[in-house]
Amino acid sequence: MSEKGQEFFKYLDDRKSAVLSEVKSLAAEDRTDESNILKAKANIYDISKAVFGVAEKAVSEEQLRDEFLKKFGNITGQWEKAYEQAKVHDDSYKILVEEAKLSAVSEIKEKAAELF
């Protein structure tokens, strides 16, 4: 894995750790719903690592950012649709889950653009 790839994975691991720390804190305060919402966000960091690994094997380093963002976008597009559906159905819990996931997506895309 390239040096930039390692830096990206470290960023993802650090962000996931920070979110999981918040999950534990919320759970300790009996704020289960909020804790569960953040668990969904934490999973996005692992998903992005898997997608990055696939993209890295498929293309050269020069094409890596575009390939990662394309593949990641294919997955995250489903979450955007789920968010819109939750809004249509006024499902406040699902809205919060999807917002948390999309928040992580936004962070990850920004970091990928910055690094690559």
Chain-wise SSE layout:
Layout: H1 3-28, H2 32-58, H3 64-88, H4 92-115
Describe the protein:
The longest helix has 27 residues, at 32-58. Helix content is 88%, strand content 0%. α1 (3-28) packs antiparallel against α4 (92-115), α2 packs antiparallel against α3 and α3 runs antiparallel to α4. The protein is an all-alpha fold. It has helices at residues 3-28, 32-58, 64-88, 92-115. The protein starts with a helix and ends with a helix.
How many DSSP E strands? 0
Helix and strand succession? HHHH
End-to-end Cα distance, whole Å, is 14 Å
For the CA atoms, what is the radius of gyration? Answer: 15 Å
The overall pLDDT average reads: 94
* Overall outline: flat
Task: List the defining traits of the structure above.
116 residues, mainly alpha, 0% strand, flat
Summarize the structure.
The chain is mostly helical. It has helices spanning 3-28, 32-58, 64-88, 92-115.
